[in-house]
Specification:
single chain; 308 residues; alpha+beta; Rossmann fold; Dna Ligase, domain 1; D-amino Acid Aminotransferase, Chain A, domain 1; 3 domains; 26% strand
């Protein structure tokens, strides 16, 4: 099988592990920088053309053909990256995560609305355009302390813990003065600075870890000094993670949850979860399971087309 990894850097841990896993299972695999692709949007013969002019100005253009692609689309390039994924979908190429699902997951507000409609547990969350609603935003989530999140933020950037009402009002006012869209969420005190990351592939959780925030930090992101270890999820936590990924339409997802007094609550669903932290913490070959999922899914699709 010919598999394309859509990633800007072949040296990234997640990308290199996917390549390693695909090759180990006998597949032909190639890393493609999606920003160096352009598309021929033609009704009868859509195509994706690759021209690596950065590496070699004299490089020839070539049309790309894969049986399956694994999108590793950076948050800063969601629009163009998902357009490339969508073009491969037009070419009947299987994508581990569909372009529409990736777009959904990148929109924090839309994600929360979709998860809410699906009945997935969430922190109480509010959203407004005007600072005139600041009092209501804070009151609705139970008062200070609150979490204020930039909708465009990633990897913990633009996430602020406002410990007092005055601080919350100041942060909300400052962000809105910059015309930034924000969410205001309740602070789950009982989580104690820890969160859960569940790796969902298909319809099951294949690995899970608990991440601990560094001293003096409330965000548990590993690149911010947090630590991680393997964790056994409860049946309810597993069901919540799978339900969240399904609601977003993602076949491979990293579902971040907090343990609250009322059960697990989802804080984010990631369409391109990093593999280094979870593989290191759990020892699970997540990359191999992604490739195995591709094999199963493409085989099923081929059988369906044959019957059709």
């Amino acid at each position: 099988m010919k598999i394309g990894i859509l990633s800007r850097k072949a040296s990234l841990y997640s990308t290199s592990r996917l390549v390693e896993a695909a090759e180990a299972r006998g597949h032909e695999v190639r890393v493609v920088n999606y920003l160096r692709c352009y598309m021929d949007i033609t009704a009868k013969r859509p195509s994706v053309i690759y021209h690596d002019f950065v590496a070699d100005r004299n490089a020839a253009e070539e049309e790309l053909h894969f049986d399956a692609v694994v999108p590793r689309i950076g948050a800063s390039y969601t629009y163009y990256g998902t357009a490339v994924v969508r073009q491969f979908e037009m070419m009947s190429c299987f994508s581990v995560n569909e372009s529409q699902a990736i777009t959904r997951a990148r929109d924090k507000l839309r994600s929360m609305q979709i998860l809410s409609r699906a009945g997935v547990g969430l922190p109480t969350t509010t959203f407004a355009h005007s600072t005139r609603h600041t009092k209501g935003l804070i009151d609705r989530v139970g008062g200070a302390p609150v979490i204020v999140k930039l909708l465009e933020g990633t990897q913990g950037v633009g996430v602020v813990l406002a410990e007092t009402r005055k601080a919350a009002e100041s942060v909300i006012g400052a962000f809105r003065q910059l015309d930034a869209n924000i969410l205001v969420q309740e602070y789950i005190k009982e989580a104690g600075g820890d969160d859960l990351r569940a790796l969902v592939i298909g319809k099951k959780v294949v690995a899970a870890m608990v991440r601990h925030a560094a001293p003096g930090e409330f965000r548990s992101n590993l690149h911010r000094g947090g630590t991680a270890e393997a964790v056994k999820l409860t049946p309810e936590e597993r069901r919540t993670a799978v339900a969240a990924a399904r609601a977003m339409g993602l076949s491979v997802a990293g579902v971040d949850m907090l343990r609250s007094d009322r059960g697990p609550v989802v804080i984010e669903v990631n369409s391109s979860p990093g593999l280094e932290g979870v593989e290191t913490a759990t020892g699970v070959d997540v990359a191999g399971q992604v490739i195995q999922f591709i094999e199963t899914a493409t085989s099923r699709n081929q059988k369906a087309r044959t019957k059709g």
